[in-house]
């Protein structure tokens, strides 16, 4: 029982730490007003990396041993642990899917940044079709919040490209 109590203390510390990470990742993002669409992809890549690292850690042999000891002892802390484990898996899958879908837009981001207003407009139909596909297919990136954030960043990039073109001309 002494070993079980010590292991439960360790698990509770991990639970608190993981909850802090989850709360922090769920807070609103603060970005500059003129940030472009590449920032959206970078945000989801960082989230994917963070949650994949967490998943690797909780699937490590050291953690698995502690969990199996607590399972044998029928510890009540395991309910909280399993819930967190499930949430981390959900968040990791969401980030992975969003990165995969946003990568399909990445081919448009470069031309948008480098193009003239005329050539930029040639890319808009393909970009919009790809965004529509993502909105229809993605299990996670199909909310008005995600779409608004993405479209705002694309608009920012278009404005920045036009400003650059005006200043050069």
Automatic annotation (TrEMBL):
Output the Gene Ontology cellular-component terms.
Answer: axonemal dynein complex
Q: Kindly state a single biological-process term from the GO annotations of this entry.
A: microtubule-based movement
InterPro entries per record? DHC, Dynein_heavy_tail
Report domain Dynein heavy chain tail positions: 5-167
**Which is an annotated GO molecular function term of this record?**
dynein light intermediate chain binding
Read off the Pfam families from this record: DHC_N1
The protein's name is DYH5 protein
Q: Which organism is it from?
A: Rhinopomastus cyanomelas
